[in-house]
Specification:
alpha/beta, Rossmann fold, 7-stranded mixed beta sheet, 15 strands, 19% strand
Length: 391
């Protein structure tokens, strides 16, 4: 029988990694992901996980190590956050372009300057064009389960793309909740040993990786990478359905609706704030207001067709961003607004920006957002929440 434990998000990630039986873990601690790699180190020390645990000298080295180990067919995990992710950034396109199925947890955290250790989603937005699949989780249980599912997705020979699982720093990484830990034998059935892809380095078939490709061939490499990354939608859903059948819980597609079928307006969220927003939707529904929610689970590749299926062309859509692309708008809003326009959406769209530097997004804030979407309150197309001073 699977057991339950009281875990924080970092520990849940560590259990998910342990159950996935990686061959190599490259680790460099950075707040707020430190406890995840410490817990994995404890598993290795106690003999509960047999793998090569490499405590490297920087985040850049962690990604370089992951690239090297994955290139010879080893199941590989690493983790980072904030400035650490930015320090890794050079290596991310090397990993994705070489089609290496690395899995990484990113504990979302604000970026400098000013220096701040608390959680927003600015760091992940810097990595959107790097060719990594990006998934956002709502709670610790989803974080554990997505570790297992992400290895299966990344290693699929039709995908062969690294996966970044984003978990909100402190709100999830350091908050404890009841988590079900699957049995190892069940995970082994679901996630078999990695099968080395034909393009990876092998003694009997020497080859070069990270080759140079000039203007005669480079574009074809990139378009192939793009088209095969788009296959992740179908695989993502297939894997989740298989997971639900095996373990009794599933999470749905790349974007999931909540009370959305008859909604006059919808709020799009990503990460832990989704739970708060669901509570607000329940409250407003009881008051007779037709509001709904879309939980964005995967932002790369972006689920354009699913978005169209989940919202009507004339519904009012709000996007809650825990980031801002300086000088413009929130990055989620940029992606969602573009997708809506491609689908001939004629309803109003609003961008709500909050949670920067870890500031709370309260239920009252979300109620106010729905008041805007319902037309009961006027607001700018881009609104900032919980500002404490005039600038």
């Amino acid at each position: 029988m699977p057991k339950y434990d009281f875990l924080n998000g970092n520990e849940a990630v560590a259990y998910g990694v342990k159950l996935s039986r990686p061959h190599v873990v490259s680790a460099y601690p950075i707040t707020p992901q430190t406890k995840a790699v410490e817990k994995i180190a404890q598993f290795v020390q106690d003999g509960d996980l047999e793998c090569e645990y490499m405590h490297v000298e920087s985040e850049h080295s962690a990604m370089s190590c992951a690239i090297g180990s994955s290139s010879v067919g080893a199941r590989t995990f690493t983790a980072t956050s904030s400035q650490g992710l930015l320090y890794m950034l050079e290596g991310l396109p090397y990993a994705s372009g070489a089609r290496l199925p690395i899995v990484m947890m990113n504990a979302n955290r604000s970026i400098a300057t000013p220096w701040n250790i608390y959680g927003d989603q600015m760091d992940a937005m810097f990595a959107l064009p790097t060719g990594w699949i990006q998934i956002f989780v709502e709670d610790a249980q989803e974080a554990l389960d997505m570790m297992i599912q992400s290895f299966k997705l990344a290693e699929d020979h039709e995908i062969l793309t690294p996966v970044m699982v984003n978990m909100d720093g402190f709100v999830l990484s350091h908050t404890y909740e009841k988590v079900q830990i699957p049995e190892q034998k069940d995970v082994d059935d679901f996630l078999p040993e990695i099968v080395t892809a034909p393009h990876l380095m092998q003694d009997e078939n020497p080859m070069s990786m990270c080759i140079s490709a000039g203007n005669k061939h480079n574009m074809e490499f990139k378009i192939k990478q793009h088209k095969e990354m788009e296959k992740a939608f179908e695989k993502f859903e297939e894997i989740d359905l298989e997971f639900e059948k095996k373990f009794g819980r599933g999470y749905g597609s790349a974007i999931v609706g909540y009370c959305h079928e008859d909604a006059e307006c919808l709020l799009v969220t990503a990460g832990s704030v989704t739970g708060t927003a669901k509570n607000v939707v329940d409250k407003l529904r009881k008051a007779g207001k037709k509001v709904g929610l879309l939980k964005l689970r995967m932002i790369r590749p972006f689920p354009i067709k699913l978005l169209k299926e989940l919202c009507s062309n004339n519904s009012t859509i709000g996007v809650l961003d825990k980031n801002i692309s300086f000088g413009y708008e929130g990055s989620l809003f940029t992606n969602i607004n573009s997708a809506l326009k491609q689908n001939n959406h004629i309803g109003e769209t609003y961008n709500f920006i909050g949670g920067i530097g870890g500031r709370d997004i309260t239920p009252e804030n979300i109620e106010e957002m729905f008041d805007v979407l319902l037309g009961n309150k006027k607001a700018e197309k881009i609104s900032f929440y919980n500002m404490r001073c005039e600038l």
